[in-house]
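Anyone up for a design puzzle?
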């Protein structure tokens, strides 16, 4: 299912980003020279399909892929405007780094970026953890959206 988020009613992102920064984790927009490393990590950690979507995000100017990094280690990623305009996703956090707020910070970074582009709402496509999105950003299900844009996917 897909979910809808009010971008004009987002919680502030500075707390989530500050908490991670204190732990030595930075969340920022990915840079084009990092594309090969990010795509390799997404492919090996998650899937070829998600790497394809992240590849599209690197084709935007500015890049619409955000990363969470500690030292030289990639801990998570999140993209928007990859499969469709105004869509959030894919996103993922390394299994060993989950539960630390990285997913929340990446989500808020992307949604803030979408809001700054002038969107009032965003669609979270093909949602996995619906409760997380509902609790974190007040996302609501879009009725009749399953399988949505991904129907007939090869």
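Challenge accepted. My sequence:
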């Amino acid at each position: 299912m897909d979910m809808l988020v009010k971008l004009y009613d987002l919680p502030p992102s500075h707390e989530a980003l500050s908490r991670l920064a204190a732990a030595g984790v930075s969340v920022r927009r990915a840079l084009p020279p990092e594309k090969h490393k990010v795509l390799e990590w997404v492919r090996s950690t998650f899937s070829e399909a998600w790497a394809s979507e992240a590849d599209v995000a690197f084709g935007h100017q500015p890049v619409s892929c955000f990363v969470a990094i500690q030292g030289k280690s990639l801990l998570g990623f999140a993209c928007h405007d990859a499969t469709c305009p105004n869509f959030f996703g894919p996103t993922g956090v390394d299994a060993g780094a989950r539960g630390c707020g990285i997913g929340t910070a990446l989500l808020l970074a992307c949604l803030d970026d979408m809001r700054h582009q002038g969107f009032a709402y965003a669609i979270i496509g093909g949602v996995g953890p619906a409760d997380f999105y509902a609790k974190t950003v007040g996302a609501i299900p879009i009725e009749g959206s399953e399988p949505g844009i991904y129907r007939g996917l090869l």
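A detail worth pointing out: The first helix runs from residue 14 to 22.
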